[in-house]
Amino acid sequence: MRVASRTVFDFVRPNGSTAPVETELLYRSEDPFAVTMKFRSGGSVATWVMGRDLLAEGVSRRTGDGDVRLRPHSGRVLVLELVSDRHMTVFRVPAGTLRKFLDATWRLVPAGTERFDADAFLSTVLR
User: Fold this and answer.
1) CA Rg value for the chain
2) Residue 77 pLDDT greater than 80, yes or no
3) pLDDT-derived band of residue 120, with 50, 70 and 90 as boundaries?
4) End-to-end CA distance of the chain
5) At CA 99, angle to CA 93 and CA 101, rounded to 5?
6) 60-90 burial, b if ≥16 CB within 10 A, otherwise e?
7) Contact partners, residue 27, CB within 8 Å, separation at least 6
8) Fewer CB atoms near the end CB (10 Å): N or C, the chain?
9) Which of 26, 36, 35 is nearest to 2 (CA)?
10) Stretch 91-101: mean pLDDT
11) 15: number of CA atoms within 13 Å, CB side?
12) What is the mean pLDDT of residues 31-48?
């Protein structure tokens, strides 16, 4: 089972201007700790996988020490920073959209009931 949502995040350019980026949020009950985000722009797709708990915490306070960082910017907007070895990409995220998506994931797999099936994971990886 899964939860999917398509939305638009604002990519923040280094000069502060923004550009809309079509974004797909995906949560699968088979991988209950992770959320996949696919960013589509100019025919390219960039995929990032991040923790559902990190996203949940980032709605209300600054979180993330590594490649994914999220923090509230205003009541309606969050700032998502994705860090790679070459650059940092910054998005403005509609807080309500992320909250609604996370609520749907918790209805599918409530917090604290997540289970990781190591055998299923290994069979997928070793194919």
Assistant:
1) 15
2) yes
3) low
4) 22
5) 95
6) eeebbeeebbbbeeeeeebbbebeeeeeeeb
7) 2, 3, 4, 34, 35, 36, 52, 101, 104, 105, 108
8) C
9) 26
10) 97
11) 2
12) 95
The angle subtended at Cα 108 by Cα 105 and Cα 110, nearest 5°, is 80
Cα gap 44→39, rounded to integer Å = 8
Is 107 a residue whose pLDDT tops 70? yes
**Which residue's structure tokens are 């509230």?**
72
Tokens of 115: 């289970």
Six-digit token string for 95: 């807080």
The pair of structure tokens assigned to 70 is: 């999220």
Which residue type sits at 34?
A
